[in-house]
Amino acid sequence: MKHRWSIPVVAVLWLIAQGIALTQAPGASTQNAGAGRGQTRDTKNPLEGNRDAIRNGGAMFRTRCAGCHGPDARGDRGPDLTGLWASGVSDDRIFETVREGVPGTDMPAADPARVSDREIWQMLAYVRTVAASTPTSTSAGNADSGGRIFQATCRTCHMVNGAGGQLGPDLSRIGSGRTRAALTKKIRAPSDSIRPGYEPVTLVLRDGQRIRAVRKNEDEFSIQVMDLRQRVQGYAKANLTEVASDKQSVMPAYGSSQLSDGDLDDLLSYLATLRGPDSGRR
Q1: What CA–CA distance (Å, rounded) separates 123 from 262?
Q2: In this structure, what are the phi and psi dihedrals at residue 226, rounded to the nearest 5 degrees?
Q3: In 30-85, where do the E strands start and end?
Q4: pLDDT tens profile 225-263
């Protein structure tokens, strides 16, 4: 179920900073629901370290954001948020992304009429405490070797910096959005969590032909899919005898017999380098 809004770290890292002219009369509060547009607001979280704010922020985060980012902010369908501050992103930049949203993504703006500045700062205070308690993961993997594994195994379906397939999600920024644990789970057991827009489906034509694909768009009368040859196809449902949602991802599960633990370490080390345009090129 899609939550109303969230704080994706990937959006934070690539959102172009917009200058917002803000003014405020002396003494006016910056913590009410209307603050953020037409008024000056804090650029540093005023509630950082406040135990009551952290407790309240945690409850709000679990209600509003955990559906995508997990209750501990370490990522699920959405990216891991615990590396925000370690990557050098400022409180002000994170706040702005939450408030403004990211056009063209699943990240909507946080309506000031419904979400006050204080509520945003409380949730950021909570996420920061989680980030502070998250150990830095280390890897003995070799990123160069991992890049070669990616080229041989993953590039057919996944794009990086404009090169590769489109059957699976673009991974150009995956290194800034997922923990090693989350990536390991996705590689070893991809059917456990399937990202919206990549749900597997089988279409059965009237002549009995079965087409396995990923669902892209669907309405009452038609469905658009990308088949396993990465061709986008549209079908009128009147010409189909069945539209079956599959539980098994089109991405194969890479168990230890298909991808050894050492090779997995190398692949994860390579994926960690993917943080935007020009990263990960080998």
Answers
A1: 38
A2: -115, 120
A3: none
A4: 999 999 999 999 999 999 999 999 999 999 999 999 999
